[in-house]
Specification:
Length: about 525
């Protein structure tokens, strides 16, 4: 809110010192939401004219008024022209959210807007896992507890820590202010009914520009293989969680006056009906760094700007088919935000193509050119449309056929291996315990390879502590001979399997086995490289 104290009580604002000078100031500019200080004479004129609705008296003040309508306000000694501070050609959106708003607005949304020539500023008040009651408490007590993440017109990003809701509201002339419930309570109507109207009232009181519009971000149901305890609230059923989210979404405009419902949740659910399947999350609840986030960003763009179908932007790490499917999921969600639109007939071209080398990191939560991040360690999780080292999309996918026990980041931070790994890759890994009785068990499936070609797989396995060596085999058209790898303090050694021919269906499988019958071993994988063999 921008304050303007104007009139006989604040003549210094205009460089005036007398009422005579005021009379010469024929058109003084004020803005919607400003506080206007009138003289006693001006107040009498305003009252005599029937208390024009352009102004609203501010309680417990003397001659202070809130400017709330456009137009001109005329007095004998002065005229005020009232303008809209939001009418500046830039769309400015503030989200009072958490990591789910981070997934929705902080990545591809600005890129989509830039592609179409829309000037956009995004503010995200971030606090991980924050529900509405948390925001309400912080608002009432003006607690400086948020990371205020801002994307400016040119795409530059900043983060101001220890920010309050009031500070973020005051930072810009926001066109849209958006609310969001925490994911665990996203399908809990009673919590939204209790807290959202109060939070809205706080925002409206502290941001009195009447042309502002309000929005609600509908988030998504968890992946069916999510392991978070929050999923128990929905009996660990994705469909139940989605339907409860929809029921909450239907009620929002009865609780507060919203102009936009951002149907990210429905867009994700639409996408899950496609050949991508239930692979829109990176660890069961936050969105996949590529297609998940792009689908949510597409829902934001289509809701706010429209005409997404003609927007040519595509993230470098998605195929054209994947990007087109994500956009279609979003477009349909905006049209029908309360029901699932079937995309099972949407075809994504999975024909094998040649590539240089594909690099996959395990358990590292990052987007980095030349690498594909596989974050979630649970069975059936799949990362498709992998990009090669030149960032060219391929049809290749990686899928887990068994659960790993967990993911960790206790690997070596500095390495000297053929991978040329940054520390974010080398220090992160999936691991699983191997008992003495275990036969080779396939954990990783690599698919959409060309069965007529041969491939080379290179694996890196590294701990910063002593571990028992274990065995790795690769199965395809034939089963390879097991190779031993010792992850203990490993910073240099990798394991290479050459001239591997996939199955007739274009698949290779990586299997782990304990080397000894005397003690337990732990299999670990930090990184994987897939390349076409030179002599195939």
């Amino acid at each position: 809110m921008k304050l303007a104290s104007i009139g006989l009580q604040a003549c210094l604002l205009f460089g005036l010192t007398t009422m005579h000078a005021h009379a010469q100031q024929k058109d003084s500019l004020v803005f919607l939401g400003d506080t206007l200080q009138l003289s006693a004479s001006q107040v009498k004129q305003w009252e005599a004219k029937g208390r024009a609705p352009m102004l609203k008296a501010i309680p417990q003040t003397t001659n202070s008024f809130l400017v709330q309508e456009l137009g001109k306000l005329s007095f004998k000694d002065q005229q005020f022209k009232i303008a809209d501070p939001l009418d500046d050609g830039v769309m400015k959106i503030l989200v009072i959210g958490n990591s789910f708003s981070d997934d929705g607005v902080e990545y591809y949304f600005h890129d989509l807007a830039k592609q179409a020539g829309h000037a956009l500023v995004i503010g995200n008040l971030f606090r991980g896992g924050a529900p509405l009651d948390f925001h309400l408490k912080n608002a009432k007590e003006d607690i400086k507890i948020y990371d205020y993440r801002k994307t400016t017109i040119d795409g530059a990003k900043s983060n101001t820590r220890k920010t309050s809701i009031k500070m973020a509201i005051d930072d810009e002339n926001w066109d849209i202010i958006c609310f969001q419930q925490a994911s665990v309570l996203s399908g809990d109507l009673e919590s939204v009914r209790r807290d959202l109207p109060q939070l809205f009232d706080y925002v409206k009181e502290n941001y009195p520009i009447p042309t502002v519009k309000y929005a609600f971000h509908q988030t998504w149901a968890y992946a069916q293989n999510a392991t978070t305890k929050n999923f128990e609230r929905y009996q660990n059923k994705q469909e139940q969680m989605f339907q409860q989210i929809v029921q909450v979404s239907k009620e929002i405009d009865k609780l507060i006056p919203i102009s936009y419902l951002i149907p990210s949740g429905t867009a994700i659910q639409n996408g899950r009906t496609s050949s991508v399947g239930d692979n829109f999350n990176r660890e069961g609840y936050h969105l996949d760094l590529r297609i998940g986030r792009f689908t949510a960003a597409s829902a934001w763009y289509e809701t706010i700007f429209g005409n997404l179908a003609n927007n040519g932007y595509k993230p470098f790490n998605l195929t054209r088919d994947q990007a087109a499917m994500a956009k279609e999921a979003a477009i349909l969600a905006v049209k029908q935000p309360f029901q699932i639109s079937d995309l099972s007939n949407w075809k994504i071209d999975n024909k094998p193509v040649s590539f240089s080398s594909i690099q996959v990191n395990f358990a590292a939560d990052l987007v980095m050119p030349g690498w594909n991040s596989f974050l979630f360690e649970r069975q059936q999780t799949m990362l498709s449309g992998l990009v090669d080292k030149e960032n060219k999309p391929t049809a290749v996918y990686v899928k887990l056929t068994h659960n790993f026990d967990a993911r960790s980041a206790k690997g070596p931070q500095r390495t000297a291996s053929p991978f040329k790994m940054p520390k974010e890759v080398s220090e992160s890994y999936f691991f699983c315990k191997l008992t003495a009785q275990d036969s080779p068990k396939e954990y990783i499936e690599i698919g959409n390879l060309d069965p007529k070609k041969a491939y080379t797989l290179t694996l890196f396995s590294g701990f910063e502590t002593a571990r028992t060596p274990f065995l790795i085999t690769v199965n395809g058209h034939k089963k390879t001979k097991a190779q031993e790898i010792d992850p203990s303090y490993n910073k240099t050694q990798s394991l290479c399997f050459e001239q591997l021919r996939p199955t007739a269906g274009g698949k290779l499988f990586i299997a782990f086995q304990n080397k000894t019958e005397k003690e337990q071993a732990i299999a670990v994988i930090n990184a994987l490289s897939i390349a076409e063999s030179l002599n195939h």
